Amino acid sequence: MRREKVPACVHPETYKYYLEREDVMATWHRLAERYGQPRRHAGFRTMEIGAPRFILRSTLLGNPITVLRRRDCTPADILELHALLGYP
Amino acid sequence: MPHVRDPAGNTTMTHEPLEPRLAMQYEPTTYRRRVAGHDVIVHCHHYNARVQRTTEGARGIDGRGILCAAAETVFSDQLTKVLRPEDDEPTRWALAERLYGHLGFGRVDLAEIADGKVSASSSHFVEGWLAGLGQSERNVCTFTEGFLQGVVHAVTGASVQVRETECMARGATCCRFEVVHGGDPRRPIAPLAKGDALPIPCEAGGPYLRSANVDEQAIIDAVVGMPMVGDEFGLIPAFSVYLANMPGDFYNQICIGFVEAMRALGRDKAAMRLLISDAEHCGMNTFRGIMHSPEWDGLIAPMVQGRADALHAIIAISNALGWGDWHVTAHTPKTLALESRYGYEAVGYREHRGQAHSPQCAMLTGVAVGVMALVHGEGTVEERFGTFASSEERCISCGDSSCNFNVERVE
């Protein structure tokens, strides 16, 4: 998998994580178990999990996942997230 | 049945949910959003922080005073509009807290306000300042100071002075405010004085250019259908930016007040240029974030076949955010013409000041430039800045039937 930095105003360290197609379902399952079930927004065809330190958001296809960090997000939070995403 | 807390820390219960009083009403004819009796305009933290910096940074004027007084007046009025005679004091404070978070300004804790203490654990303006302008050497929550002065007035009838003593923008763990009753003679809070509302235009405008690929109504419906209310932090993270529902009266009061104060120094033209520049940055940065957002990928990207489609989609989003009821009348890669039928700046100026001598829509003028630079420019945002120029040729504030903007590439 890979990630790309995206311009976003909420946090300078905002990335889109591109999952391998075969990993999408399992990854979202792991994220939901850890951070809660995703909410869907039908109008924009998006879904998101609002975790305390970041927001995980994607289209309904689930890939890529944009990680919008909140200001108090720590390196440890990201390390844990990367483990769940399978990002090295 | 919601629990509310009074300033002494006692918890009581109200007999009905408070949220319905803050529900947004949408007017599709003008794209206006109305919350608690006020038209609200959805802007991002980037724009709000920049306008604050411009207003407060100008030498020779009391920019902080302008901003604080505007917030005080507008939010005293807005909270008053949702209060009911039967509301007890805990319910009134609870509504004040919820109004702040509901609109997306963050989270304030008013539990100790009777002791003169208020804290805020999240803040739209702090996020905006840190994300766009970097750590500050001074406290930045002037807006919240004014908000608090306004809601104290609405709840208790008292005129107080609120001062921020610690600010997250300077590294504090939360923002803290002290509320001073009495002390120096305090001028009474200015009522929100406006003339009659300008009628909504009856005649169809245009003719307007449309994109065959872009379903503008689907975009508008999706934006209007978004839950544009503060989350558990009182913030609205959407389109990869933090949004807030700001009363149009607030923007109009600070922008008109800023230009008038600068006019007294012979610098009103410079003031307009600064406000236009803020909006140009907003147009580029906000929509750049939007164009990389999952929301864009989910609904809009499949409609976009070329740059013109992106432009039409952006205009549709801005309409749904309540900016201007504006539409494209002509467009080439080097030029753009837009017509606005009910922009909040022009309409607000007429309501606040009567007929103007010159166009007043700094925000739309700047955004028009920023959007063209984003869609048709090349390079980084910094490299695109200043590559287009725009002018407002006609303005509702001057008595015209619409506001018209022309944008051209700077050769």
The topology string of helices and strands of chain A comes to EEHEEEEH
Calculate Rg of chain B over CA atoms. Answer: 21 Å
- Tally the helices of chain A: 2
Count the beta strands of chain B: 15
Task: Based on Cα principal axes, name the global outline of chain A.
Answer: globular
Number of strands of chain A: 6
Strand content of chain B: 15-25%
Strand content of chain A: 25-35%
Spatial order of strands in the largest sheet of chain B: 3-4-5-11-10
Residue-averaged pLDDT of chain B? 92
The total tally of domains of chain A equals 1
The CATH topology of the largest domain in chain B comes to Muramoyl-pentapeptide Carboxypeptidase, domain 2
Distance between the termini of chain B: 63 Å
> How many individual helices of chain B?
13
Task: Report strand order across the widest sheet of chain A.
Answer: 1-2-6-5-4-3
Can you characterise this structure?
Chain A has 88 residues and is an alpha+beta fold. Chain A has one domain (2-85). Chain A is built from two helices and six strands, in the order E-E-H-E-E-E-E-H. Chain A has helices spanning 24-35, 75-85; strands spanning 2-5, 15-18, 39-41, 46-50, 54-59, 65-69. In chain A, a hairpin with a 4-residue loop joins strand 3 (39-41) and strand 4 (46-50). Chain A starts with a strand and ends with a helix. The mean pLDDT of chain A is 95. By secondary structure, chain B is of the alpha+beta class. Chain B folds into two domains: 3-180, 2-Layer Sandwich (Muramoyl-pentapeptide Carboxypeptidase, domain 2), CATH 3.30.1380; 216-228 and 268-409, Muramoyl-pentapeptide Carboxypeptidase, domain 2 (2-Layer Sandwich), CATH 3.30.1380. In chain B, the strands form four sheets. A five-stranded antiparallel sheet of chain B has the order 3-4-5-11-10. In chain B, strands 6-7-9-8 form a four-stranded antiparallel sheet. The longest helix of chain B has 24 residues, at 268-291. Chain B starts with a strand and ends with a strand. The mean pLDDT of chain B is 92.
